[in-house]
Write a structure and sequence with these properties.
The complex is a heterodimer of chains A (about 350) and B (about 80). Chain A is α/β, with parallel strands linked by helices and about 350 residues long. Chain A has 13 helices and 15 strands. Helix content of chain B is about 55%, strand content about 0%. The chains are: A alpha/beta (about 350), B mainly alpha (about 80).
Chain lengths: ~350, ~80
């Protein structure tokens, strides 16, 4: 409900619809009763409960990896891991459209930061080859870029990174649970997950709560728990949060039907909007995010308001958060949206688009 | 390549980015005088990097505010 009108939410990252899953809610309630409202301590002091270990075990199983480390937010996961593995004298080569948490992690670690044009494999390779011999190299990529909903050509990029002796970190925040045969993300989908040194993810999207994590097969990974400052110097997640996350992650391992339905939703909405004459961020649907490109900020804002009036909430993204100064209406789909609702959404877009004069 | 040769090469590279035809001297600033936004900076830096086969990291870019500083930095980076 929004302003007294029933409203379809098409602007959440609750891709897999886990926030109201009865098992997830029950697990959270039970943990609240059993362990209280919070841990009031750092993971390295009194803030590691059985639930924190349990959710890390669930992550290791979900990704089939040896190590998992949970942070209090996804932002802190990028901040912590990147700043800890790449320090002064090392080089970080990253996509120019990277998330703010990646940029901040680079800055905090004091490494030399070398950006390249979005998804440009040649530009990335040139920069890797110019790095002085002997310097540590880290390539930072994302599976799905959240502004346009486009994916990275990880297969080629990771191959090039490895050929040039770089470690690879991939942020799969927007793909977890949905993309790849087991929902492990774009790297899994492209068959290169084994070559990724560090996968960063979040509980605040498909998992449906809050928190961040890193999974890895690196043999010395466990030392990170002690030296990674955003992990050490902050309170750990409340027991109810790790309990809901753990239950949700385990359910996502067997969510093949939901994944298929969400893909259907994404394809239907993409085709529906394109057929109505809207300009979209990607030629084909590549993720659960569909970005509708607005001609300018004024009409973008008018369209956003017209959609809200129709009973549809989407996210309005504007410069400087967007690439190339674009104004976008970002639609993010949920596996709980029914096929009928997707048709309703397309109708709302058509009416609003005509009212505002975009189509 | 010495400073003069480097300067000549950069002068040719900056031309297509100097949309307003501002007169470029050593004290011309990129953000102020040339009104480069972050995307223009990225494209311009990429051109320079490719032309001289060097890396100008973000950390180094932060120290470069005007045209003279860029020529100095590129001259030095070719080592």
């Amino acid at each position: 409900m929004c302003n007294g009108r029933e409203t379809i939410l098409l602007g959440t990252y609750n891709y897999m619809g886990m926030t109201f899953d009865p098992d997830v809610i029950e697990a959270g309630k039970q943990a609240l009763d059993d362990f209280g409202s919070g841990t009031t301590g750092s993971r390295v002091l009194n803030g590691t409960y059985a639930g924190h270990r349990a959710v890390e075990e669930a992550l290791k199983e979900f990704y089939a990896m040896d190590h998992a480390m949970v942070f209090s937010t996804g932002y802190q996961a990028n901040l912590g891991i990147i700043s800890t593995i790449a320090g002064k004298g090392d080089y970080i080569v990253l996509d120019i459209d990277s998330h703010a948490s990646i940029w901040d992690g680079c800055k905090m670690g004091d490494a030399e930061v070398v950006p390249f044009k979005h998804n440009d494999i040649v530009a990335m390779e040139k920069r890797l080859k110019r790095i002085p011999e002997g310097a540590g190299k880290l390539v930072v990529l994302e599976g799905v870029y959240s502004m346009l909903g486009d994916i990275a050509p990880l297969k080629e990029m990771i191959r090039v990174a490895k050929e040039n002796g770089a470690m690879v970190l991939v942020d799969e925040a927007h793909s977890m649970g949905f993309i790849g045969p087991n929902g492990r993300g774009v790297a899994e989908d492209q068959g290169v997950l084994d070559d990724v040194d560090f996968v960063i993810g979040t509980f605040s999207k498909s998992v449906g709560t809050v928190g961040g994590f890193c999974v890895s097969n690196h043999p010395k990974f466990e030392i990170m728990r002690l030296v990674c400052r955003p992990h050490v110097f902050t309170a750990s997640l409340p027991p109810s949060v790790v309990a809901t996350a753990c239950t949700s992650i385990r359910k996502l391992m067997h969510a093949g039907n939901k994944r298929a339905h969400l893909w259907e939703n994404s394809k239907t909405l993409h085709k529906g909007l394109r057929d109505k004459g809207f300009q979209l961020g990607t030629e084909e649907p590549q993720s659960a995010i569909i970005a509708v490109i607005m001609p300018d900020l004024e009409r973008g804002a008018a369209m956003w308001e017209a959609l809200l009036h129709e009973g549809l909430y989407v996210n309005l993204a504007r410069p400087p958060a967007t690439p190339a100064g674009m104004t976008l209406l970002r639609c993010s789909l949920c596996a709980e949206h029914s096929a009928e609702q997707v048709q309703t959404i397309i109708g709302m877009f058509e009416r609003a688009g005509k009212t505002v004069g975009i189509i | 390549m010495d400073r003069a040769a480097t300067a000549a090469k950069i002068a040719a590279l900056i031309e297509p980015f100097n949309k307003k035809g501002v007169e470029v001297t050593d004290t011309t600033t990129f953000a102020g005088d040339l009104e480069f936004d972050s995307l223009t900076v990225m494209d311009f830096v990429a051109e320079i990097e490719d032309a001289f086969d060097i890396i100008i990291s973000m950390n180094q870019q932060a120290e470069i505010e005007n045209y003279g500083q860029l020529i100095d930095a590129v001259t030095k980076l070719q080592g």
